[in-house]
Amino acid sequence: MSAILRLEGLSKRFGALAVSQDICLELAPGRLHALIGPNGAGKTSLINQISGALAPDAGRIFFEDEDVTRLGLAQRARRGLVRSFQVASLFDGFSALDNVALAAQARAGSSFRFFARAGKAADLNAKARVALDRVGLGERVGRRAGELSHGERRLLEIAVALACQPRLLLLDEPFAGLGVEESAEALALLQTLKTEVTMLLVEHDMEAVFALADDVSVLVGGRLIASGAPEAIRQSPAVREAYLGEEEAA
Amino acid sequence: EGKVKIGMIVTLSGPPAVLGGQIRDGFALAVKKLGGKLGGLDADIVVVDDQLKPDIAVTKVKGLLERDHVDFVVGPVFSNILQAIEKPVTASSAFLISPNAGTSNFAGKQCNANFFVTSYQNDQVHEVLGKYAQDKGYKSAFLLAPNYQAGRDALDGFKKQFKGRIADEVYTPLGQLDFSAELAKIAADKPDAVFTFMPGGMGVNLVKQYAQAGLKTIPFLSAFTTDESTLPAQKDAAVGDLGGANWAPDMDNPQSKAFVAAYEAAYGAVPATYAMQAYDTAMLIDSAIRTAGGKLSDRDALRAALKKGDFVSLRGGFKFSTNHYPIQDFYLTKVAKRADGKYETEIVERVFKDYGDSYAKDCPLK
Amino acid sequence: MNWRAVVPGFGFAALALVPLAARWGPEAYALNLATRALIFALAAMSLQFMLGCGGLVSFGQAAYLGLGAYAAAILARYGGGDLLLEAGTAIPAAALFAVATSAISLRAKGVYYIMSTLAFGQMLYFFFVSLSALGGDDGVTLDARARLAGTDWLASDRAFYYAALAALALGYLLLDRIVGSRFGRVLGAIRQNPLRVRALGFEPFRYQLAACAISAALCAVAGVLLANLNSFVSPAFMTWQRSGDLIVMTVLGGVGSLGGAILGALAYLLASELVSTYTEHSGLWIGPALVLVALRGRGLAGLVWGGR
Amino acid sequence: MLSLEAVCAGYGGAPALFGVDLDVGEGEVVALMGRNGMGKTTSVRVIFGLVALSGGRVRFAGRDISATPPFARARAGLGLAPEGRQIFANLTVEENLICAAVAGPWTLSALYKLFPRLCERRRAFGDQLSGGEQQMLAIGRALSTQPRLLVLDEATEGLAPLIRAEIWACLASLKRAGQSILVIDKNLGALLRLIDRAFVIEKGRIVWTASAQEIARDRNLVERRLHLGQDRLETPN
Amino acid sequence: MALLLVQTLNGLQLGIILFLISAGLTLVFGVMNFVNLAHGAQYMVGAYLAAWLIGLTGNFWLGLALTLPATLAFGLALEALIYRHLYNRDPLDQILATFGLILFIDEGVKTIWGAEPISVDTPAALAGGVALMPGLLYPIYRLALIGAGLAVAALLYLIVNHTRVGMRVRAGASNSAMISALGIDIGRLFLIVFGLGATLAGLAGALVAPILSVEPGMGDSVLILVFVVIVIGGVGSIRGAFLGALLVGLIDTLGRAFGPALLDLAMNPSAASQTGRSLTPMLIYLLMAGVLFVRPSGLFPVKR
Ligand SMILES: Nc1ncnc2c1ncn2[C@@H]1O[C@H](COP(=O)(O)OP(=O)(O)OP(=O)(O)O)[C@@H](O)[C@H]1O
Ligand SMILES: Nc1ncnc2c1ncn2[C@@H]1O[C@H](COP(=O)(O)OP(=O)(O)OP(=O)(O)O)[C@@H](O)[C@H]1O
Ligand SMILES: [Mg+2]
Ligand SMILES: [Mg+2]
After folding, report:
1. Which residue of A61, A239, C182, D218 has the fewest CB atoms within a 10 Å radius of its CB?
2. Preferred mutation among B12, B49, B50, B55 to probe C, highest tally of C CBs within 10 A
């Protein structure tokens, strides 16, 4: 089966800073691909380009064999290319439920409906509850997103992404900000999710990465320096030097 | 019941508030002189501010008519307010007397039996200056006015009388602050005369900047630009500027002299034509009620009495044309500094005698 | 049925009683004042929809008011003076103008958006000022009040009041539904976090454009009514100060609450009128009152029914 | 040097802390631990005066600072690397580092030495930084105020393993130099190697504390405690 | 050609006047993020105070020197009473409050000084003109204004971009809780900056008084123009406000001076004068819409 996502020679600069340099990458469907690399290596920038928030200077992006390079963020999202944000990006004035229900609404088709009360849409709310339960925010449905704690917001961020029913999910540091307990729970969640949806995971929590990833790529200074099976990456001296350090690799 | 109610609607907010103030004060002065009575009846005056917003003016006028049950509505200052309130007032049982705004439409076809103007038809003042420029033999004139209806009418009025070359005709945005672009143009064009209509603060700015730019060698003719409402701010910059008016504070008749003295004593400022016209309006109402025998309910008698205009005007002669606009003399005026340091306009020469407006022929009233 | 739904019901019922009360006073005056207040309430509510729900502070709202008014004036002059026809013309005209200008304004955000709506409002204002055919700055007088579906019911001030009230109530119901609908939810989300909305797959631009058109259409209806109320139309209806007044009414009422906008408009206009009957210096009283409401926050709606 | 005594606080109507007692001694490194949403950050905000107290007291360096405004507390020697970074987006990296700086050992060049990446990005605006770079900046900015007590709220979030290790090393050296630190972090391994004492907070109450000796005796104790719910364990002392 | 030069000079100096008035507002609006609609009213108060104090002392310079502390005091009073409570609030609340203030101040000024426009004489030392070219007399006072505008621009540029005060205020405007937690008394800092803004408004009013008439509501009409300037330049950018002001001044002046003539070339004269009339007042708005179309955050977008 062909790749669900294919990057061809993606390049992006911010002034003198090259954040993506001729990146070529293929994601196989049904697998979880982890992307690691030092701070400022260009991981988030890459996710931004794949999701359409940032236009690459050169190169092309194929999603399910369609060239999406010129499509906007929203158009890609409608095709099932969904991302989560490194800094939780929510609707602070909406309840947790509404945040997720809106994501479900995006999936459900046209929102140019002017009369039916959205808050009473049982189908959307039901889907939203399922997603919230999955991330463990079942008790917080009515809370306004702005009043959640940092970790809770991160969980909500994941719930929103889930409710979009993605075909490819781009996760930007989903474990950041989660407590010890919650991290373990999120790990379990992603384990089951792996069977449902293809994922590209950016994460600095190596425990999680090596527990989850089928493939790992390493980005340093905007360049992919290594790609392969987790064990091989963990042992690679170059990766150790640039990113892992001795302790984590051990 | 021995009482006459007057509703006055003038602009009392924003920069033009000074004009509304003059009208209010001029009218009040007359009533005071008449011992608080008009036509022998106790005068009760309600003053409201139209805020220069036509829709608000309509509401206010309805309030005057229905809440205060006024017999006369006196006002407004501005033409666009007049357009909005003419219908509601004339359709009621009250008379509308305008102490300032006198638009052409109500002078012609749309003239109304219950509407009187004690000032002039708007075009006339501009014609005075056009006529003067023509008589003086100026070859070319530079015209300048803000870009709105009154501004366009002003230049048309001037051109009706002036047949020389128009060096340029410039319209500026309403409320413009800085005239250096126009002044540079004037300097380049070197016209024989400049004619402008720049009411209020715009006029103050223009006159000061005209003087600062060293252009005072070119005769400066203007209407509603240098009068007693703006002179305290223009001061020396305006001295010598020419204007057109139906009256000036140095008008040589006893009633006018007394009026100017009383006004200055009461309000500490030299009255402009606005105050004069308001004063005359009060006198007109006084005369009409008297002539009609104090019976406010007899509208036809009152109307006939108003139309007679049988009062001693500060301008000397005064009578109404068929369209209820005045027939009167118009003068060329010149700004001067008085001995006491105050500034006023002074009459230079009479330009029109017993001058009626040209729209009256379209008015069906007899 | 919760009490939040009941309050507007009572509110409109109370407004329906005004003409009956007016009979004991200076009727035409009271009705004129009240009708004008209702019309501005409609305009303020249309702004509230954009501003409170969509986060789009339009500083050119008076342009739509003016468009509606001029549509009425032009139709009246050429014999098409029927309220339905006038509204039917004004609505698409204003919506079209809104779509055309918002397509440009919406590129800008925040103050930049505010100022570009001002720019278009001012352009329309100057257009009408220099349009001598319609009286320019002096405006035009309408010969008579519009007819309603061929009848002359509206000639009566009382009937006209009820027409305005009906327009306001219908507008309220309509907007209230829209705010709570899927469309409204997306609009509210865009206000809070446009990037997130795009990441979910919505194009904010389309929703905001639609919101502008809806708001403009409603405001144009207010314009039609205003023209007929005064039988007069002039560019003074569409100065930037008017747009500013509408913003003030809306914020005074309480950002985000449709009922608040109505309350704000009524309070602002009636208080101004009331104060000005007692003093020439109404600014000395109205000004501090506005400051106090602002300091307290959440507007009058916050006072009456505790927040949004 | 810092003590919270029976502190109660909350947001609007909703209380979040119910009588928290917590203290940090001179030169001590203390951890505050707990699940998400239990009140760690709220405690930090209380310390800095960013949420109002509804009961209890906060003392710092011998003074009751319960009513002191936030800026004065910071000037008295409290330094914060807040949760979620809170970088000034409209300031450049360098401006972020000098805007609140006070003279002392943590000069600009010292900070750049600690985080060379920041030096490379010194002209970039706060919101142009990557997540990890912002985190470095938040820590650096806290240090630039030369605090007597450094409060780190999830300060290693989003940092690459290599940098994280450096931060821990840096904290260890700070500790050796006598710096007092209150730290909230989820990296138990590194945390336990560093701290003298730990507090565990649950639903707005401190439910457990471990002393330096206890931690030294059995590093797993804290970890075990953290994985258990309140209802399953009696609170010692 | 000489005319073009003169008009360009005129445009520049109108721009400088606009900049003088805008300067204080960019500071408060752009740097502190506070939407101060009453800035125009404070400018008006400055003009009135100047007119009054100059009249009282009979000396322009003395009057000017007294005006500055007076407007400062006025601004600080407003800050303490009202603005201080609104810094971290919805900008719409700030709009409402400052709008209320405008109503109050306008009315107050009219109550105190009356509705008549008043004017201030040009100081004797700066009266008259200099010949820049043969036949081109340029008022000295306006040259002095240009100098003052440049000085204010330089001062503000330094304060905002090169002092810690500027940084801290910008930081405080984006996250005031955080800047307090770093040990900075943001309340006092805002007070200082606001005072500076108020003084600048007063200074603008005082300096402009000899050229423009001092009248009630003079601040309101200028306010919109000033916002146009700031938005074209990019909110919060001193450089932007400066160039925006010059641009507005130039386009407006040159458009008024040469627009009709250009239109004449393009179409028949009567149509041209008709279009010209409706177009000139729209020019600056067209300019703004155009700038925002191409650069939706102004010419010099600033991080906020
Ligand atoms: N809008 C921007 N303008 C300028 N530079 C930018 C911008 N966005 C990101 N950068 C820079 O690009 C580099 C890559 O950033 P990116 O966010 O992709 O890093 P990252 O790999 O996700 O790092 P982290 O793991 O710390 O999140 C960083 O050095 C950052 O400062
Ligand atoms: N701004 C806020 N408004 C209202 N409630 C809030 C706010 N911030 C936090 N809360 C609530 O207060 C409680 C404690 O939150 P706090 O942020 O202190 O948790 P935390 O222990 O720091 O969690 P995390 O590990 O997720 O950061 C939570 O229930 C949270 O929902
Ligand atoms: Mg990142
Ligand atoms: Mg926290």
Report:
1. D218
2. B55
Closest-CA distance of chain E to residue D192, Å: 27
What is the CA A165 to chain-centroid distance, rounded? Answer: 13
User: Is C189 touching A (CB cutoff 8 A)?
Assistant: yes
Beta bridge partners of B74: B8, B97
Query: Which among A102, A136, A163 is the end of a domain?
Result: A163
Distances from the Cα of B188 to the Cαs of B167, B238, E1, in angstroms? 11, 22, 11
Q: Which domains does chain D have, with CATH numbers?
A: 2-228 (3.40.50.300)
- The interface predicted TM-score of the complex, written ipTM, equals 0.88
> What CA–CA distance (Å, rounded) separates B79 from C21?
35
User: Higher-confidence residue: D231 or B330?
Assistant: B330
- φ, ψ of residue A20 in degrees (nearest 5): -135, 125
φ, ψ of residue C70 in degrees (nearest 5): -70, -35
Same domain for A198 and A121: no
Domain that holds residue A249: 1-87+166-250
Tell me whether residue C288 is in a domain: no
Note down the domain range covering C113. Answer: 7-239
**Is residue A231 located within the same domain as residue A108?**
no
The model scores a pTM over 0.95: no
pLDDT value at position A117?
82
E218 in contact with B at a CB cutoff of 8 Å? Answer: yes
Indicate which atom in ligand 1 lies nearest the CA of residue D117: 29
Split into its structural domains, chain C has a count of 1
Which residue owns the Cα nearest ligand 1 atom 13?
Answer: A40
The DSSP result for A152-217, as a single string, is: HHHHHHHHHHHHT--SEEEEE-TTTT--HHHHHHHHHHHHHHTTTSEEEEE-S-HHHHHHH-SEEE
Asked if residues A35 and A86 have their Cβ atoms less than 8 Å apart, the reply is: no
Q: What pLDDT digit, counting tens, does each position of E190-224 carry?
A: 999 899 999 999 999 999 888 888 888 888 888 88
Given a cut of 50, the residues of chain C with pLDDT beneath it are 1, 307-308
Whether A106 and A4 map to the same domain: the answer is no
Instruction: Identify which of C285, C288, C253, C254 has the alpha carbon closest to the alpha carbon of residue C272.
Output: C285
Looking at the fold, whether A218 and A151 belong to one and the same domain comes out as no
* Predicted local distance difference test score (pLDDT) of residue D219: 65
CB contact under 8 A, C186 and A105: yes
Compute the count of residue pairs across chains B and E with CB atoms less than 8 Å apart. 121
Arch. (CATH architecture) of E2-125+139-294: Orthogonal Bundle (1.10)
For residue D232, what pLDDT band results from cuts at 50, 70 and 90? Answer: very low
Q: How many A from CA of D83 to the centre of ligand 2? A: 11
Q: Establish if C223 belongs to a structural domain.
A: yes
CATH code, domain carrying A66: 3.40.50.300
Domain count, chain A: 2
Q: CB-based contacts of C101: which residues, under 8 Å, 6+ apart? A: C60, C117, C120
**3-class SS at B138?**
coil
User: Peptide bond before B76: cis, by omega within 30 degrees of 0?
Assistant: yes
Helix axis angle, E140-162 relative to E238-266, nearest 10°?
130
What residue spans define the domains of chain E?
2-125+139-294
Burial degree of B288 (CB within 10 A; 0-12, 13-18, 19+): buried
Alpha carbons within 13 A on the beta-carbon side of E257: 29
Q: By a Cβ cutoff of 8 Å, what residues of chain C touch chain E?
A: 51, 57, 104-105, 107-109, 111-112, 115-116, 118-120, 122-123, 126-127, 129-131, 240-241, 244, 247-248, 251-252, 255, 281-284, 286-291, 293-295, 297, 299
Put simply, the answer to whether A90 touches C202 (Cβ < 8 Å) is no
